[in-house]
Each structure stands twice: as structure tokens, then as C-alpha cells.
Amino acid sequence: MNKHAVTETVREQVDQIDNTYSSLHALISSCEKGASAELTQKLKHFEQCLSDIHKIRLAFNDLKESKNKQKEKICDLRRQVTLKDGLINSFASDIIGEFESQGILRTEEDECTPKNEERNTMMVLCSHCNSIILREGEAVWMNGNEMEIPLARQKKGGDLTQCEKLHGWWTVKDMFSFENVGFTNSVDGIRYLTCADCDFGPIGRVTEDNLHIVAPSRVKMGLDSS
């Protein structure tokens, strides 16, 4: 039975109680005029029972009003909670922004990203076969303008080369600083870097000023190659 049907049923029952109460109350009044003492006492008891039924009937209205009041209170509480959450989030955002601007707080991304011109404190390894590409201290992190490097795996059926955009990379000036690296033939005037052991790549590229850059997404950092 759905909610509407239940409401209609309750309403019908309430109407029946009202009609029964009115009819019986009139009957009691008429009987009391010529009834014996015993009958009068029984009718009084019966009238009290009817009065109790009538109170129950009135409770339906109280229950309905209480339900509406409860809904209003719940809605009001929700509004207060929403307002409180908004104030807390605004306050937290202001505090975090202030801490970050002062260098007191660093985000998780900042913690993982080296500082500009910082040397690698761990070995740079091939993400595919774990071979050592660079040993500790051989590369310098550089943030720069956007640079593109082709994806290692190209989607089939595409006419254009899919590329990854880089905003930061490991830089190496001397090619002999690499522990293990391969070079591709020039493609559109650009030579790319690969892993010399498994040929995975490109892991980087050579710039016009002969600077070797390694994409952080194509390699991984580690203390050893095991």
C-alpha cells in the first residue's frame, strides 16, 4: 500500500470514529434520562471509553502537526550545518592558502616534485625494465615552458602522433653522464632517448641546444635497480 492510500485509510477511520462518537454520545444522553442507577453507571463507564477514543482521534492531528514541526526543525538544522560547513571550508581554504604562500605548507604534489635546479637524489631507472638510466646527482630538475614528447604507445588508426605535454623534466648536458641510454634517428629534426637495454621509449629527447631531457613520467626513481 502506497503512502497516499495509507493516508486516505487513516482519514476514513478518523471520520468513522467521529461519527460513532457523536451517535453514541447522543444515545447515552437520551438513556440517562430514564435509566436505572446500574445502567447509568455502565453508560458512564462506556462514555469514558468513548472519551478516550476521542482523545486518540485528536492525537492524529497532534501527530501530524508534530511531524511537520519535526520536518521544519530538520530543515533548519540542515541549513545550519550547511552554513557551518561553508564557514569551515572557507576558513580552512584561507589558512591553507596563507601557509602555502609563506612556504609553511607544501601540497602532496609539491612534495613529489623536485625544486627547480635540484639534482636527483636517487637513481633514474627505466620504468619498463628497471635498468639504470642515470645515477644519483647526474641530472638537474628544470621547470620550463611546455614541451611535447610522443607517447610510448600510440593508438592504432590515428593519423597524428599522440604526444604528452611536459612542464618539468630532468636535464643532462653531457651524454656520457648517462649510465644507459639509446638515441633514435632524427624524426622531424628531433632525436629521442630510449632505454638501451629494452628499447622502451621515448623516455626523453634532445633539444635544439643539445640539452638532453628525460620525462619523469617515462622513468622511475629508486635506490637500486633490483
TrEMBL record:
<dbReference type="Pfam" id="PF04421">
    <property type="entry name" value="Mss4"/>
</dbReference>
<protein>
    <submittedName>
        <fullName>Uncharacterized protein</fullName>
    </submittedName>
</protein>
<dbReference type="GO" id="GO:0016020">
    <property type="term" value="C:membrane"/>
</dbReference>
<dbReference type="GO" id="GO:0005829">
    <property type="term" value="C:cytosol"/>
</dbReference>
<dbReference type="InterPro" id="IPR007515">
    <property type="entry name" value="Mss4"/>
</dbReference>
<dbReference type="GO" id="GO:0006892">
    <property type="term" value="P:post-Golgi vesicle-mediated transport"/>
</dbReference>
<dbReference type="InterPro" id="IPR011057">
    <property type="entry name" value="Mss4-like_sf"/>
</dbReference>
<dbReference type="InterPro" id="IPR011323">
    <property type="entry name" value="Mss4/transl-control_tumour"/>
</dbReference>
<dbReference type="GO" id="GO:0007264">
    <property type="term" value="P:small GTPase-mediated signal transduction"/>
</dbReference>
<dbReference type="GO" id="GO:0005085">
    <property type="term" value="F:guanyl-nucleotide exchange factor activity"/>
</dbReference>
<dbReference type="GO" id="GO:0008270">
    <property type="term" value="F:zinc ion binding"/>
</dbReference>
